[in-house]
Amino acid sequence: MRRTMTSLLTAMLVFCVAAFVAPVGVKAATPKAETVKVGAILAVTGGASFLGGPEARTIQMLADELNATGGINGNKIELIIKDSAGDPEKAISFAKQLIEEEKVFAILGPSTSGETMKIKTICEQAKTILLSCAAAEVIVDPVAKYVFKTPQKDSDAVKKIYGEMKRQGISKIAVMSGNTGFGQAGKGQLTKMAPEFGITIVMEEVYDKTATDLSAVVAKMMSNKDIQAVVNWSIVPAQGILAKNMRQAGWKVPLFQSHGFGNIKYVEVGGAAAEGIIFPAGRLLVADVLPNDHPQKTVLLKYKNDYEAKFKEPASTFGGHGYDAFKILCRAIGQVGPDREKVRDAIENMKGFVGTGGVFNFTPADHNGLDIDAFAMLTVKDGKFVLYNH
Amino acid sequence: MQFCLCHGGLVFFMTPELFLQYLFAGVTYGLIYAIVAIGFNIIYNTTGIINFAQGEFVMLGGMTAISLHHYLPLPLAIAAAVAITMVIGALIEMVFIRWLHNPSILRMIIITIGLSILIREGALHIWGEGVRALPYFNGNEITSIVVLGVGVSPQVFWVLGVCGLMVAALYLFFKFVPLGLVMRACAANRVAATLCGVSTKNMVTFSFVLSAGIGAMAGCVVSPITYSQYDGGTNLAIKGFTVAILGGLGNSMAAVAAGLLLGIIEAFSISVVPLAFQDAIAIGILLIILFIRPHGLFGNRSAAMLKEF
Questions:
Q1: Counting Cβ atoms within 10 Å, is residue B195 exposed (0-12), middle (13-18) or buried (19+)?
Q2: Model confidence over B146-199: pLDDT tens digits?
Q3: Residue B12: is its pLDDT beyond 80?
Q4: ipTM
Q5: CATH 3.40.50.2300 residue spans of chain A
Q6: How far apart are CA A389 and CA A303, in angstroms?
Q7: What secondary structure letter does DSSP report for A383?
Q8: Of A213, A267, A311, which to mutate for an interface test with B (greatest number of B Cβ within 10 Å)?
Q9: Are B227 and A237 a contacting pair at CB < 8 A?
Q10: Does domain A11-152+301-371 have CATH number 3.10.450.50?
Q11: Which residues contact B162 (CB under 8 A, 6 or more apart)?
């Protein structure tokens, strides 16, 4: 018995060590004097892979493009992408590795809020610029000197949703959220801002990020006749599953989703159930129908067409967050040269940068730089994202 | 939080509709778990090991069917996917397990863990990281059949029907078909079966083929409901393992009962505690069973003592 236990323990230990060592990516090539090393920690695989996948592809595409055209004033970018698989523990070890061993100039990502919060202090202490692609507001509130983020604020998303609910006369809602950093942060904002808009949350439920069926919890919510609408806050496939389970149960209340819904794959797998879902998102998804004089139109169309031509898959807002992070860093390096302190100052004072997420205006107090106008209200019609017109 | 607490009181006033909705959800979860658990049991019976790649068979079945569905009609795509997964099951056994001389249980377990990682990474390279789904067999994502005042997706009945049929067919197979009887003989006593002229190696291969096929079939019917993703097998394997232990390792009919029990407990638990505790309940049950009845709810203590693992 004891021998079996010992062997089992040994096996587990071997297994853990293997799991820990395996994902460490390709070792960087020998650095040249004029290259700027940029690290990226992205969830290329795992549950959040639809965030990290497009982000990694986008950043790689931009870096190749930049290096092929001579870099930033001759400075080439050397990109080191690490796949964290959405695991905060891996994000921590990659952050330490990038900072201590690779001595990177800046880190792009991580893809998820949970990971970003784990490495926020690490980057701050190491004075390494972090441009997160994750959405939660806690990343930049309170402001950390070296930490920025490119996705729109979740508080603005909540304001946008609650504003729409108020217009429709909805006052009693149910809140669903995934058990990820993004879900928790969104739930916090929804709860905090509800009184301001005269909205009462009569039921709230949290589901696991790997949830595959929510029909039981839908039955529970449906039995409460007070609920006039459901808000779901997550980034996982359960967004489509919730919509299906609600419609199959014959529950017809409006379903609002967060900006985590901005991936056409969810609409594809949600099929008919995704029709009519209302959610706030950046304008990338509706770039084609924007008026020609919209400041973002050119940037959005170029990125969308480049990405779709190269990777044969629809562009998502998440890849856009990677785009913004990379371009902001490059623009700052272009302005002041590859000096970390100066680049940090340049980002903090950057104004009028037109990205995919909106027009960025950073200040020392605002390390996100986007306001509520960065969001448009979208809905799903005939399997496509369209602007939501009342 | 307050709301969750007072909500518990509602259980006592549960309407028949709500009761039925929980029941349907629970039976659906439960049968999926049971199918995975049966896959564990078939291999356990002939080899004495737990095949941790069982969940990957479910994933492979769903993913293969989705890819084939671009070229073939749905029934053919599913049949082909099941056949392909069975071949993969056979290959895995032949390449990684068959040639081992008297391997220790621990070594075999490590091999299956390695295999599950290998299959998962392979699937990631073939299909990418995104979610996919087979179309609904009848109707679409919003179709529902009203049963006693409750809307239920027709796919739920497909899951119930297909899983029910598989369980019945397996029961008959092991009871009456000669091949099934021989497999049971291997399970009962490998040495004696060998002495009677049974090729235990072939039986082991066949057990992999059978459990791969069952898993793949389950992967196809649940795909419209749960979606398929390259790493979807892991969670199913954990739940299936819980159910297999709960019923008593090696006993397939007990796995069905245990699966339904766990599924229904999970579904009804939502009416009392927040959804977030759903998995905690499953693992809690597993722990309690391991402490109190390590041979499972329906298992036999003295028989379990004779087994190596």
A1: exposed
A2: 888 788 888 989 998 998 898 889 889 888 999 888 888 887 777 888 888 888
A3: no
A4: 0.77
A5: 11-152+301-371, 154-281
A6: 26
A7: T
A8: A213
A9: yes
A10: no
A11: B217, B218, B221
